[in-house]
Amino acid sequence: MTKSIIFDMDGTLFQTNKILEISLEETFEYLRVKEGWEGRTPVEEYRKIMGVPLSVVWENLLPSYSNQIRLDVNDFFHERLIENIYKGNGALYPNVENTFTYLKNSGYTVYIASNGLPEYLSAIVDYYKLNRWLTDVYSIQQIESKEKSELVRTLIQKCNITGGAMVGDRISDIQAAKLNGLLAVGCNFDFAQADELEQADIVINDIFELRGIFS
Fold first, then answer.
1. What is the rounded distance in angstroms from the CA atom of residue 124 to the CA atom of residue 16?
2. Residues 69 and 162 in one domain
3. Which residues contact 119 (CB under 8 A, 6 or more apart)?
4. Which among 9, 52, 120, 122 has the fewest CB atoms less than 10 Å away?
5. Which domain holds residue 199?
């Protein structure tokens, strides 16, 4: 049996909260100037839906705006996220690197399956040199449906994975694991919701705990 572990990125490996607010503030200042947005930046509203594809984010945050404006805003936000990654404003969660080293040394293959866009994921992988441990990275942009469970299924099929786990912080990660016959490991981190984590097979409070689970 192939020993493989698939990780979500945002809120699981990468502390997205460290660049989320500043990038969102920059984006809504752009929207205020260009489109006359009034009111505060909806940071908390974004936190509640963190983990969904960005197209869904803007449908929720900008319901009265045209699709073209949403696309423009999405592009601007995406650029700000990447810029803040390379400025060093983000961070991996504690113990990600030593846990990845342990998993690789123990014979596990490590993948990422994320709702993030390819350029964004590449920036994180590049800045933190995650290719030292990763076998491959899959973005939601690679599939038409934009469903996390289908993305994981695509990864499993292409990489001939016969068993393992999915590690993530949101219900989409847990469902992707269960629908694809993987162990569902829920991360009780920044964006996690208690009612969603109840559906996981195992819940961790630190990535380091994976060493005990996959010993």
1. 10
2. no
3. 78, 82
4. 122
5. 4-15+91-213
Angle at 170 between CA 150 and CA 49, to 5 degrees: 100
- Token pair 């990864």 is found at 155
Q: Position of tokens 């192939």?
A: 2
Edge-to-edge strands of the sheet including 183-187? 134-139, 109-114, 4-7, 164-168, 183-187, 202-204
What's at 180, amino acid-wise? N
Span 142-168, average pLDDT: 94
Residues 62 and 74: beta-carbon distance below 8 Å? no
Phi, psi angle pair for 113, to nearest 5°: -130, 115
- pLDDT (tens digit, 9 = 90+) per residue, 101-143? 999 999 999 999 999 999 999 999 999 999 999 999 999 999 9
- Residue pair 1/163 in contact by the 8 Å Cβ criterion: yes
Calpha distance 171→52 (Å, rounded): 10
Total domain count for the chain?
A: 2
pLDDT tens track for 65-96: 999 999 999 999 999 999 999 999 999 999 99
